[in-house]
Amino acid sequence: MAAMTAKKAGKRASGAVRGRKRRTVDVALGDRSYQIEIGDDWLEPLGRRVGDRLGAERIALLTVPTVARRYAPALTRGLRAAGARVSRIVVPDGDATKNLRQLGELYDRFLDQGLDRHSAVVTLGGGVVGDLGGFAAATFLRGIPFAQVPTTVLAMVDSSIGGKTGVNLKQGKNLVGAFHQPVGVYIDAATLRSLPRRQRAAGAAELIKAAAIWDADFFDWLESRIEAFLDLDPKVVLPALERACAIKAQVVERDEREGGLRRLLNFGHTLAHTIETHARYRGILHGEAVSIGMVFAADRSEALGFSPKGTRERLQSLLERAGLPTRVPNRPRRAYLSAMAVDKKKQGEEIHFVVLEGIGAAGTTSLRPRDILPPGWKA
Ligand SMILES: NC(=O)c1ccc[n+]([C@@H]2O[C@H](COP(=O)([O-])OP(=O)(O)OC[C@H]3O[C@@H](n4cnc5c(N)ncnc54)[C@H](O)[C@@H]3O)[C@@H](O)[C@H]2O)c1
Ligand SMILES: [Zn+2]
Questions:
Q1: Which of 58, 209, 273, 300 is catalytic?
Q2: Pairing with 258, which of 174, 176, 247, 325 sits 20 to 30 Å away (CA)?
Q3: Counting atoms of ligand 1 from 1, which one is nearest the CA of 203?
């Protein structure tokens, strides 16, 4: 394939792609720097690398049932080969697991198993175990190291990178959390083979988001390969994961604590959150809501004069080819307005709304909900 290059000043290109070779992406954050290692079918050696990197005597391996059954044995063999004593903690599947009660149970298990300041946590699974396990690691004994082994597309390209960890409260998602960078992110793309296609597509929405806000060449590249990505062709999956991880890494490097640039990652998320709230987080996956939200935001970006005509159409067509929904659910304007009014990213009356400035570039603008959804707007 042609190399994906980021021509824009300041955006780092990841270089040409070399077959199925293992690849590494740096996340440069001073003394909290780490690497994302991406390979295919290497779970046991991956475990060995994680274990060597952590150098911990005891490791709590946090995972969920489906993932545990398939992947925990090989990963554990690798961790043990590095000399660690590994205890497996399996928590129930689903976002509802990211709660304070579950967190309390984790601390109990850590103490029962004799974890101390020289111990570490490894999370194996999607964003749910990554966020929960990362937050447990951030807070147990005021913080012990952890490593992420993400097994969903979403976790590989988004949630495992950047150090945001946390749990939900009954009042809302991710309301309690901490920044705690992992010591490394270790990806085995082969784990995606058991991930349902709908989940793959939902994760691909975040990958398309990364391309849309940051890298026009990557977007072009994906336009001729999105089906191959969803079919998990390794010649496409590995470079695509690498590029999307590199984009997230670059954004996080420049804005670790979300002062400005990191907000670009919220592209499509203002409307997505309102859709998820209305659906009470049931029946629609986060990536699906983001897909709809991105098309909406791209449409508003054109209407407000930020991006050239045709931008929304290109984005929408790529998302649709990925099998993602793009139509805003039919609800009255006021329902969307009131959901936006409680957006936690809100400052005063205005929302930092992410607009596209064309494919591959984005910016933020402060808008009141009623300007995002002007009178007469219909879903
Ligand atoms: N920390 C961050 O920066 C950040 C960013 C985005 C999202 N998030 C969080 O991430 C979570 C969503 O992550 P997610 O989409 O990965 O959801 P998830 O962790 O619930 O995983 C989705 C589903 O896939 C299953 N699964 C995972 N890997 C599998 C595999 N290889 N084979 C078969 N099944 C597998 C899981 O059991 C689950 O049912 C949310 O809680 C969200 O708040 C965090
Ligand atoms: Zn998201």
A1: 273
A2: 325
A3: 15
What's this model's pTM, rounded to 2 decimal places? 0.94
* Residue 170 falls in the annotated catalytic set: no
Q: Is 258 a catalytic residue?
A: yes
Q: Catalytic site residue 302?
A: no
Is 142 annotated in the active site? Answer: yes
Would you say 273 and 184 are in contact if contact means Cβ atoms under 8 Å apart? Answer: no
Q: Which of 130, 208, 122 is closest to 163 using CA atoms?
A: 130
Q: CB of 247 within 8 A of CB of 36? A: no
Task: Please give the C-alpha separations between residue 219 and each of 24, 131, 207, 319, in angstroms, as whole numbers.
Answer: 21, 28, 9, 11
Which candidate in 258, 320, 350, 357 is catalytic? 258
Q: Which residues neighbour 273 within 8 Å (Cβ) at sequence distance 6 or greater? A: 289, 293, 339, 343
Protein residue with its CA nearest to atom 44 in ligand 1: 159
Determine whether 352 is an active site residue.
no
Q: Which ligand is nearest to the CA of 203?
A: 1
**Closest ligand relative to 193 C-alpha:** 1
Residue nearest to atom 30 of ligand 1 (CA): 195
Token pair listed for 31: 């003394």
Q: Which of 206, 242, 276, 302 is catalytic?
A: 206
